């Protein structure tokens, strides 16, 4: 640090202002004690609700202990940034059109990891310019961090019954990020109240009933997990429940009353690319690997790879109403080199009596 010690309360206020200048809707500060979250985390892991996400179990309680994850951490700056692209096609209409592909709203533009990470690093650079060198590390859904719990403790919102963070002014359609620091910044007051009341719309609407009880999700049934995290075959019993959701699922957010207050993103990077908000399943299924890699460059979707992309689309096509176009598209990959793709295509063709 510079020779004179910074005025920490003033610095905290400046950090929040700088964060908003960088495009974050809100920024708040909390300490590192998340011990209250440890019992719930352990119970969730012991129930096997994390599925194949072994990294969650591998890191264990380090997820709830920021100072162990990054030694020297004493404060965490939590931020969020809205991501809904402006002017997207009507969500209900796309979900109702079984021949179209529904892609989670967060994945329609560029990869949020890069966008938020770059902005958080700029925030760190701004702090360093002000006070000199300090210890810090940026996180954006990239390490064993209890992001929602940190944001809740920092006062940015409360955990909804679907387990996502909710904010009274922004709903839940936003990305969360953190800046771990060794600065003893004054913490903000945590959110004391949960404003979901008796509402259970998110639980009721879940296509696979993955929200097994309020505030608890069995990832093994969650469509986001099945289409993104799961590497192998999608359980056959769950496939019809996916409908046309081929990458992620927003149902629990779409029915949430608090998302009446969700705002469109101002970030150009989150604008829709390649018409993914309103596109035919067959069109996407016809992309070869080179086309997929080219069109998805810079997108969060790229990380699942072409094989799982085709797996998901095959399920979507299997759930669509039978048409010559859909059957013909599926038959083009009946002998695909990938066993995973062949299996899901065969299932889809069987659904169409082909």
UniProtKB/TrEMBL annotation:
Its cofactor is [4Fe-4S] cluster; cob(II)alamin. [4Fe-4S] cluster 2 binds at residues 206, 222, 249, 252. Pathway: tRNA modification; tRNA-queuosine biosynthesis. GO terms for cellular component: cytoplasm. [4Fe-4S] cluster 1 binds at residues 196, 199, 202, 256. TRNA binds at residue 231. InterPro entries: 4Fe4S_Fe-S-bd (IPR017896), 4Fe4S_Fe_S_CS (IPR017900), QueG (IPR004453), QueG_DUF1730 (IPR013542). Keywords: 4Fe-4S, Cobalamin, Cobalt, Cytoplasm, Iron, Iron-sulfur, Metal-binding, Oxidoreductase, Queuosine biosynthesis, tRNA processing. It holds the Pfam family QueG_DUF1730. One of its GO terms (molecular function) is epoxyqueuosine reductase activity. This is Epoxyqueuosine reductase.
């Amino acid at each position: 640090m510079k020779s004179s010690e910074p005025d920490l309360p003033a610095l905290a206020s400046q950090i929040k202002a700088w964060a908003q200048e960088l495009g974050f809707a809100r920024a708040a500060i909390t300490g590192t004690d998340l011990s209250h979250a440890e019992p719930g985390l352990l119970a969730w892991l012991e129930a096997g609700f994390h599925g194949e996400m072994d990294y969650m179990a591998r890191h264990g309680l380090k997820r709830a202990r920021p100072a162990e994850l990054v030694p020297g951490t004493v404060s965490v700056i939590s931020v969020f940034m809205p991501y809904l692209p402006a002017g997207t096609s009507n969500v209900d209409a796309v979900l109702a059109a079984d021949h179209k592909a529904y892609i989670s709203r967060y994945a329609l533009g560029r990869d949020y990891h890069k966008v938020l990470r770059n902005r958080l690093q700029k925030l760190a650079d701004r702090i360093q310019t002000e006070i000199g060198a300090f210890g810090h590390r940026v996180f954006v859904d990239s390490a064993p961090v209890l992001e929602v719990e940190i944001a809740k403790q920092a006062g940015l919102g409360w955990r909804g019954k679907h387990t996502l963070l909710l904010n009274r002014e922004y709903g839940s359609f936003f990305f969360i990020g953190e800046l771990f620091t060794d600065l003893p910044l004054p913490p903000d007051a945590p959110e004391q109240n949960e404003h979901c009341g008796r509402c259970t719309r998110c639980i009721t609407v879940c296509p696979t009933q993955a929200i097994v009880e309020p505030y608890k999700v069995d990832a093994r049934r969650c469509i986001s997990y099945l289409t993104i995290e799961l590497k192998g075959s999608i359980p056959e019993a769950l496939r019809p429940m996916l409908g046309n959701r081929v990458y992620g699922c927003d149902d629990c957010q779409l029915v949430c009353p608090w998302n009446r207050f969700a705002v469109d993103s101002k970030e150009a990077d989150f604008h829709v690319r390649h018409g993914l908000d309103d596109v035919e399943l067959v069109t996407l299924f016809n992309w070869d690997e080179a086309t997929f890699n080219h069109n998805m460059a810079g997108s969060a979707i790229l990380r699942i790879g072409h094989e799982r992309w085709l797996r998901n689309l095959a399920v979507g096509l299997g759930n669509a109403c039978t048409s010559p176009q859909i059957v013909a598209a599926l038959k083009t990959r009946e002998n695909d080199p990938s066993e995973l793709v062949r299996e899901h295509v065969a299932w889809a063709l069987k659904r169409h009596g082909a």
